[in-house]
């Protein structure tokens, strides 16, 4: 425990003793605490995943470092060439901040429709990225479409890496590292987010397709990024479909047909809410929906 740190207890039924939470007043103090706690500590922002650990029969950490009051982590900065999103920005705040920026429609939709209003008011963008066990995170495929970079901080400095690489290494990051910002380059693009929940209210999606395209003066796709989430354990880009879209007009029906021909590259995950085959089978329909939405943006 950090000497002289303001602490409060958090009960956890799977823990031998109450956990403790340190409310960090600054990023430097948060990084100090995370380094001191090591593997016994973790960051706590919205807490929507951590607080349900007992339901998943997972042990709580002995110590948490609350980062939700750190100003630089709760800010969205909009510049002419890039947008910087603090890791503790909530889904609801993110959707509101970018609502008037059509180029980020895919992220506005992902953040603004995830889970339910209560969760969106608490869940943070950094938590969405850092929780490796959560395959159905809406914002991850949306950010993959937007060429997102992730800034990680530790007491010895900061590092910026591409989101796809971050997703590969996030579960093996050494203690003391914290996602602090997400950086998105600005570009002329059309984008859309399509998700399929089993029911309409509050469900995790069975499958997600996020789409971003740049269209030239002749109406042809100049650049394309398609990402799939919730189908496999980790969201990823659909690069073969991207390549098939480039150089042609974006047609929703043709895009769906192409997706159907290429969908066998996915190995769906089985779970209590949906079988693996079903997750893969709905992808062409989601591609069609995303293309229609992008064309209308």
TrEMBL record:
Pfam family, any one: FAD_binding_5
EC number: 1.2.5.3
FAD-binding PCMH-type domain: residues covered: 14-189
Domain of life: Bacteria
Keyword tags: FAD, Flavoprotein, Oxidoreductase
InterPro entries (UniProt xref): CO_DH_flav_C, CO_DH_flav_C_dom_sf, Diverse_Substr_Oxidored, FAD-bd_PCMH, FAD-bd_PCMH-like_sf, FAD-bd_PCMH_sub2, Mopterin_DH_FAD-bd
Gene Ontology molecular function: carbon-monoxide oxygenase activity
Protein name in the entry: Carbon-monoxide dehydrogenase medium subunit
Species: Bradyrhizobium elkanii
Lineage: Bacteria, Pseudomonadati, Pseudomonadota, Alphaproteobacteria, Hyphomicrobiales
């Amino acid at each position: 425990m950090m000497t002289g740190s303001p602490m409060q207890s958090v009960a956890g039924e799977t823990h031998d003793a109450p956990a403790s939470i340190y409310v960090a007043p600054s990023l430097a103090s948060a990084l100090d605490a995370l380094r001191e706690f090591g593997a016994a500590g973790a960051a706590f922002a919205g807490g929507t995943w951590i607080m349900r650990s007992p339901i998943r029969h997972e042990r709580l950490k002995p110590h948490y470092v609350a980062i939700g009051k750190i100003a630089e982590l709760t800010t969205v900065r909009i510049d002419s060439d890039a947008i910087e999103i603090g890791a503790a920005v909530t889904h609801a705040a993110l959707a509101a901040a970018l609502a008037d920026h059509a180029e980020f429609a895919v992220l506005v939709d992902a953040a603004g429709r995830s889970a339910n209003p209560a969760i969106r008011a608490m869940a943070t963008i950094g938590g969405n990225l850092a929780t490796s066990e959560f395959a159905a995170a809406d914002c991850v495929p949306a950010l993959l479409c937007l060429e997102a970079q992730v800034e990680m901080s530790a007491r010895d400095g900061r590092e910026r890496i591409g989101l796809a690489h971050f997703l590969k290494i996030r579960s093996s990051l050494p203690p003391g590292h914290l996602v602090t910002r997400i950086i998105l380059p600005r570009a002329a693009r059309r984008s859309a987010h399509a998700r399929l929940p089993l029911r309409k209210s509050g469900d995790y999606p069975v499958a997600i397709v996020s789409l971003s395209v740049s269209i030239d003066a002749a109406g042809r796709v100049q650049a394309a990024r398609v990402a799939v989430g919730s189908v496999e354990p980790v969201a990823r880009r659909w690069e073969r479909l991207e390549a098939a879209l480039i150089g042609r007009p974006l047609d929703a029906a043709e895009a769906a047909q192409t997706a159907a021909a290429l969908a066998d590259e996915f190995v769906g995950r089985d779970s209590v809410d949906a079988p693996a085959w079903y997750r893969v089978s709905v992808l062409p329909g989601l591609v069609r929906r995303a293309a229609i939405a992008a064309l209308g943006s």
